[in-house]
Amino acid sequence: MTPVPHDPATDRAASPRRRTVLAALGALPVLAAATAATATSAAAAGTAVVIDPSVRRQSIRGFGGMNHPLWAGDLTAAQRETAFGIGPGQLGFTVLRIHVDEDRANWSREVATAKRAAELGAIVFASPWNPPAAMVETFVRGSQTNARRLRYDMYGAYAQHLEDFRVFMADNGVELHAVSVQNEPDYAQDWTWWTSAEIVRFLRENAGAIGTRVIAPESFQYVKGLSDPVLNDPVALANLDVLGAHLYGTSFANFPYPLFQQKGQGKELWMTEVYYPNSSDSADLWPQALGVGEHMHHALVDGGFQAYVWWYIRRGYGPMREDGQISKRGAVMAHFAKFVRPGHVRLDALANPQSGVWTSAYQGGSAMTVVAVNQGTAAVSQQFTLAGTAASAVSAWVTDASRTLAAQAGPAVAGGSFTAVLPAQSITTFVVSTSVGPEPMPPTAPGTPVAGAVTATSAALSWAPSTDDVGVVRYDVVRVDGSGETVVASAATTQVTVTGLAAGTAYAFAVYALDAPGNRSPRSATVAVTTAAAPAGGCGVDYRVVNSWGGGFQGEITVRNTGTTALTGWTLSFAFTAGQVVSQMWGGTATQSGGAVSVAPADYTRTVPAGGSVTLGFLATQGATNPAPAAFALNGAACG
């Protein structure tokens, strides 16, 4: 999208050359809300929608939108709850897209909303519009004499720029699920152009330096000529995790992508930006807003997309109005977002059972969700049949001209079937309680692990949790190397310390989540860890009590390097056995869990010269006795 903020009602209206590709859909007739009378006179049911749980299509990653504080202003605290909460009057979004600004000074703007979205269970991914100015050159592209592209000698630096943004967000509490190479590289008058060959080169040679999933190419109109070369290049494809696309003006007939279905096994397919049908109408205009429901249906059913992401979350034409309340377009999105949750799987179902009616079905645990859009001007009766599955109850929610996500009494269930009236020009979501046996849905992938304390023989790892309908019961940490992967630790929580490592050795670790029925998640992205080197030639530790008083004492620890080379960077470990607790330390920073104490150096004690020493002092509490620690270890190696 353009970096020039406009009036919410007219965003992008001044750029018809970019959006003239949007098809003229024509005015839709005015809605007449369905009443009890219209329900009884509804048109006869068309072909029954048979839903087959045994024929499973794509898994769903989620639904969401873009937050761009620099161009559109940040969401407020209340608006973050509306966007990513799942209660009444909320959108239930589970995906947030943010901006990788070329200027690092603007990165902090992204943190507040991203952090809260992640806390509410959303995944966060980021897209860049431009590299830093020093990495860009101008060239002539047709009639554009000042076109911009990434300098060919700056590909590595640009990958590091994207990695630096990932690390910045992680340091501020947000683990990015993915990072894109470039927003709309094929429509870049206002930003940076990329050819398909340039994208392939970057994926082949540089994308591996990015420590999370990689998205490309984010074509503005799902131009297959930009992504075909990636799918046809095994090395580039190996470094691609998500094929991203925008659907501005893309006809429904062009939503399917046979080459991706053929060659994209193990990759995900996301729709990462759109507004529909335009940015000029109010998002509350009905029945025009209902068109969003049909667009989402075709994206999920015809296109097989796993994520559907709107442009600005808060805008006059967006899912949230400028006053912070959800719009009619937003309510239509919420019919999917609040009930089709991450990890649900789309099931085989008749997509167009009668004129103007579009249906899709999704499985999550022991519940099945059916979303039905009726574009017609009359209410219709529609039968739904669950093949091989007994339904016990149905709940329903409807949005039409007069109602917004209004709860309805569900239709009666007979065996595996129910018949419902779909009001004129409406969207209805049905949640069906079923008996489906073992929960078939795997957990979502855990967040990229983050390394904490690393010694010569161990590494502390933590990660963002997975989500799952029945709950994650265990995480397995694996060591990844050229011969495959090996489970090295398991935990019920989202942190673990991997032990038994070799000093001065590089490792790569990743995490799987497992649920109660034994389903395993996709593997997380990997984290690289290099263990500390063991002290060359040995080390020594002297410990003494300098002074003591009732309930406390002052201690001193001298760390000696008895080797022949300087020791730079160290971690000292020991254990108190009589309840002593360190309350203050100088020369280092102490962390304590129970009796176990770990000490990291201060800047001025970080280097211990060959044959030299550094001294630490501390205050601690004590009980009736105050025995000295029995042993000390430096970087995981025992010290005398």
From TrEMBL:
Keywords: Carbohydrate metabolism, Glycosidase, Hydrolase, Polysaccharide degradation, Signal. Residues 532-640 form the CBM2 domain. Residues 445-534 form the Fibronectin type-III domain. Gene3D superfamilies: 2.60.40.290, Glycosidases, Golgi alpha-mannosidase II, Immunoglobulins. It comes from the Bacteria. Belongs to the glycosyl hydrolase 30 family. This is Cellulose binding domain-containing protein.
